[in-house]
Design goal:
The strands form 6 sheets. A 9-stranded mixed beta sheet has the order 2-3-1-4-5-6-9-10-11, with helices on both faces. The longest helix has 20 residues. The two termini are 47 Å apart. By secondary structure, it is of the alpha/beta class. The protein folds into 3 domains: 185 residues, UDP-N-acetylmuramoyl-L-alanine:D-glutamate ligase (3-Layer(aba) Sandwich), CATH 3.40.1190; 139 residues, Protein-Tyrosine Phosphatase, Chain A, CATH 3.90.190; 237 residues, Rossmann fold. β22 and β23 form a beta hairpin. It has 21 helices and 29 strands. The relative contact order is 0.08.
């Protein structure tokens, strides 16, 4: 060990002692950060002492898969270094290597944040990078998934000897493997499961030609067996395949076939976890063990003994027969997997915790892509509690799911237990920074909590109202959602829910029609049209789709049609917009043009507008700088400097007759009911219906609005 490495290690030791002994905190990232400051190459220096290593990355399942793979690699007694606590940035990996150096480990198994792979792989040069999946996550930090793909591909190019073991069921992962020359090891589930397909996927477009993919079957999200009908790109042949997947009373049972040789080798696996996501995690851990030079002889024993880290998926037994199940979920796909767990248990009491701290991402629009409506399948859902820094937003989301039970705003788990029936089980789902406090509270309650003498009286925040008298219309109000299979990045399902529910709650008959990619556009009897936002690749596909039908959209707008266009949809209506260095021809419906900015405008925004009586709140995340033509006027004036269309002229969005174009998502309508009602009222007047909209109880919406307004104006 050279002197620089030795000094860096000693300084890291001192930092660990200070954080654990003086500050009484876990060592975490601090020791690694100190070591990297003194020796930026310390990961490579200490990593060279390892005989072999593997790195695990991806959006969901990293910590579980890494811990399980590390246990499997060490099952024969070999010393394994692993960042088990989930400190997955460069500093966390450095800290793990420094702490383990005296034990002289032979094997490394590391969890790595997707954006840090480009800094870790070239230094560590592992045998394999295991890529689990790519889902939308923390858009204000990661940006669009395309950026994450670019980073991982570059990391692999800088470490050409590293094999990429990738989830071939995910076209976003397969696209990375197709871009690099590293040895590829595809794995996936090689049969339909018909268990957990989601309403929203992050991308189902071809990585080669951008055409919509055809799926033989979908497991969840965009994961499944796919093929491009245009260019023939398809899911790669699987080197490792899960087959004979069956859900038993205790979890999943399946076989993993190793198809790399002339003879197929089959490994039988049983789990005590009921989520299909665990089939992928377990299979990935098995693949990591094999590629990392471990033996699978004891894999089942390791799996049987494994306990998820940091309280994930743990059941806490409390006084009086109460129980609490703690689950971590940080994005729509993760939440949907946890909802599936609640459904499998036929849960009665649920608590959802939502934070918007830096590590969570400040944009909470993703909660509208959680399929909370699936909880309607529960036989006897009694109560949903919501907590966290953005509990009000989650409360509105639960309200619009119409679960038929009370919604309670809480501070912590103990508050939620006041509404839980005697001896019952509470299912807690919390996002990233909300989860550790939940676990800490449960650890405390497990040793000191006394069951209440009687259940608390429920103070109902919101329950379903009586059926209103139906408004007489010659036909229902027709709401047209354009291309939700492509433009689904910013929770636009919440905008549709706000429009349709606020009509239904007033007795206004309405119907929602989706126009999917490849379908004919018919706006002849449309009353409200929604054109949402999407990733660059998906937005480009929609642009091409609409260019052949732009006259229909232009005629609708010219006739006073009501249209809400969000982010990318807003840009599409103009003359052009920029996708990187490429100028993309727009639809020329509005006199608007969007140039490229050198930075992104990201954060909570408030806008003073004539559309409604209080500021419109939302979240912006865009690199484009939009300029309005002389005949266009903005939706309103941004109350926060440096935000809005371009960060300079103070305007946000556009208001053109019945068209509202805006960069605000969140989504915009649920916590701005005045904007929703403006759109509905405008559509009715266009139909010749002079109807004064009945007021609705918007207490939860107002709470969510006020929280967002406070955040925006104090940033």
């Amino acid at each position: 060990m050279n002197p620089r490495v030795r000094i860096a290690c000693l300084a890291a030791d001192a930092a660990r002692w200070g954080t654990t002994q003086l500050l009484h905190r876990g060592g975490g990232n601090a020791p690694g950060a100190v070591a990297l400051r003194l020796d930026p190459g310390i990961i490579g220096s200490l990593g060279d002492a390892l005989e072999r290593s593997v790195v695990v990355t991806g959006t969901n399942g990293k910590t579980t898969t890494t811990g399980l793979a590390a246990d499997a690699l060490g099952a024969r007694g070999e010393r394994v270094v692993c960042n088990r606590a989930g400190n997955n940035m460069e500093s966390g990996i450095a800290a793990a290597l420094v702490e383990a150096r005296r034990e002289r480990p032979r094997v490394g198994c590391f969890e790595c944040d997707e954006l840090y792979t480009v800094r870790v792989l070239p230094r560590l040069r592992p045998r394999a990078l295991v890529l689990l999946n790519l889902f939308r996550d923390q858009l204000d930090r990661y940006g669009e998934i395309d950026h994450t793909q670019d980073v991982i591909a570059e990391a692999l190019r800088r470490s050409p000897e590293t094999a990429i073991a990738f989830n071939a069921d995910d076209p976003l992962c397969a696209a990375i493997a197709s871009r690099v020359d590293n040895p590829g090891v595809p794995f996936g589930i090689d049969e339909p499961t018909d268990l957990e397909a989601d309403r929203i996927s992050d991308s189902r477009f071809c990585a080669q030609c951008n055409a919509p993919l055809d799926y033989a079957y979908v497991h969840y999200g965009q994961l499944g067996k796919y093929r491009c009908p245009s260019c023939g790109w398809e899911r790669p042949e699987l080197a490792f395949a899960a087959v004979n997947v069956s859900l038993t009373c205790g979890g999943y049972e399946f076989d993993v076939e190793d198809r790399r040789g002339e003879k197929v080798v089959r490994h039988h696996v049983t789990t005590r976890y009921s989520g299909l996501y665990m089939v992928y995690n377990v299979m990935a851990a098995l693949v990591a063990c094999i590629l990392g030079g471990g033996s699978v002889e004891h894999f089942q024993e390791v799996l049987d003994a494994y306990e998820p880290a940091s309280g994930r998926g743990k059941t806490y037994a409390l006084d009086g027969g109460y129980a609490v199940v703690s689950n971590l979920a940080k994005n729509p796909t993760g939440f949907n997997r946890m909802i599936q767990q609640v459904r499998a248990a036929d849960g009665r009491y649920v608590a959802l915790f939502l934070n918007d701290n830096d590590a969570d991402g400040h944009d909470v629009s993703w909660i509208w892509d959680i399929d909370l409506e699936r909880l309607r399948d529960l036989s006897d859902l009694r109560c949903v509690c919501v907590g966290g820094t953005r509990r009000e937003d989650m409360a509105v989301r639960v309200k619009y799911a119409e679960l038929g039970c009370p919604i309670e705003l809480i501070e912590g788990v103990e508050d939620a237990l006041r509404f839980v029936g005697a001896g019952e089980k509470l299912h807690v789902i919390a996002n990233y920074t909300a989860f550790p406090p939940v676990v800490a509270e449960l650890e405390r309650l497990a040793g000191s909590w006394a069951a209440p003498v009687s259940q608390a009286a429920t103070s109902v925040s919101w329950v379903e109202r009586a059926e209103p008298d139906e408004v007489a219309l010659d036909r229902p109000l027709r709401i047209v959602h354009l291309y939700p299979d492509a433009l689904n990045l910013y929770g636009d399902g919440g905008n549709i829910a706000s429009l349709s529910k606020r009509c239904a709650w007033r007795g206004i008959p309405c119907r929602v029609d989706q126009v999917l990619m490849g379908q004919e556009l018919d706006l002849s009897d449309a009353d409200i049209v929604l054109l949402g936002g999407g990733a660059d690749r998906d937005q480009l596909a929609v642009c091409h789709e609409l260019q052949g039908q732009r006259e229909k959209l232009a005629a609708y707008v010219a006739d006073g049609g009501v249209l809400l266009a969000i982010c990318g949809g807003y840009q599409l209506l103009g003359h052009y917009y920029m996708m990187g260095e490429e100028r993309v021809e727009g639809l020329h419906v509005l006199d608007v043009e969007t140039t490229a900015g050198s930075t992104r405008l990201i954060g909570n925004v408030a806008v003073e507008s004539a559309v409604c009586g209080q500021p419109i709140v939302g979240f912006e995340n865009h690199a484009g700088r939009t300029l309005l033509g002389a005949g266009e006027k903005p939706l309103g004036r941004a109350l926060v400097g440096g935000t809005g269309n371009n960060g300079e002229d103070g305007g946000e969005g556009v208001l053109h007759d019945g068209v509202v174009g805006t960069y605000l998502h969140g989504p915009i309508l649920p916590k701005n009911p005045g904007v929703t009602d403006w759109l509905i009222g405008r559509a009715l007047r266009r139909r010749g219906v002079d109807l004064e909209l009945a007021p609705l109880p918007d207490d939860l919406e107002q709470l969510a609005h006020d929280v967002a307004l406070k955040i925006a104006t104090h940033r």
